[in-house]
Design a protein that fits this description.
Blueprint: H1 8-19, E1 37-42, E2 45-50, H2 52-60, E3 64-73, E4 76-85, H3 90-93, H4 96-116, H5 125-129
Antiparallel strand pairs: 1-2, 3-4
């Protein structure tokens, strides 16, 4: 099932899907124009990350789990699931310092896996091009 986010109705669909035992996956590192972001340190420089995945979790009461598949080569993948938060209380989503802390925890884990497997993260290419944010072993980027 695909639920397009962005309208009040979509939030109700997400809530109903979760209540029925579904699992909702989102691209938590992506934002669209005019969406609110929070700047946190990422690969050595401040970077904007969207607030909406954390607000969605607060609105639904759903736990946050980091999930992705790292391509290892030769048709092999490592599937990663890491719990980030058991849930976000709605009042947390209204406090900028608490939201920044939640996002910082998420970004630290994404950065860890970016450094492990830099070719898996095409959406962060601009960070890899800058000398100050590239991995110490630049041979993986050659």
């Amino acid at each position: 099932m695909l639920i397009r986010l962005g309208s009040p109705h979509s939030m109700l669909e997400v809530r109903e899907f979760l209540d029925a035992g579904g699992i909702v996956g989102v691209l938590g590192d992506r934002s669209r124009a005019n969406e609110k972001t929070c700047a946190v340190e990422f690969l050595g420089a401040p970077a904007p990350f969207p607030l909406w995945p954390f607000r969605l979790a607060a609105a639904t009461g759903a736990p946050l789990v980091l999930f992705f598949g790292l391509y290892l080569g030769g048709g092999r993948y490592e599937i990663v699931f890491e719990p980030l938060a058991d849930g976000i209380r709605p009042e947390q989503a209204r406090r900028p310092e608490e939201m920044q802390e939640l996002i910082r925890g998420y970004v630290e884990r994404v950065e860890h896996h970016c450094r492990r497997a830099p070719y898996n993260w095409f959406n962060f290419f601009d960070f890899w091009r800058r000398p100050e944010t590239a991995p110490a072993d630049r041979s993986v980027l050659a």
